[in-house]
Amino acid sequence: MPEPEPVAGCDVCAALARQRAAAHALGDKATVIDSNIEMRSHSHPKREGQ
To answer: Most buried of 2, 15, 27, 30 (most Cβ within 10 A)?
Structure first.
């Protein structure tokens, strides 16, 4: 399964993406997986027109 892409303009996604990148660099697979799960499962507010 491909890693989730951060949603543009979402501070939570941006922080999780940074955390995931750092975990990748350290070889910390557990944190990479946790970051991916959290990124997939947190909600984003509906944008106007959606």
So the answer is: 15
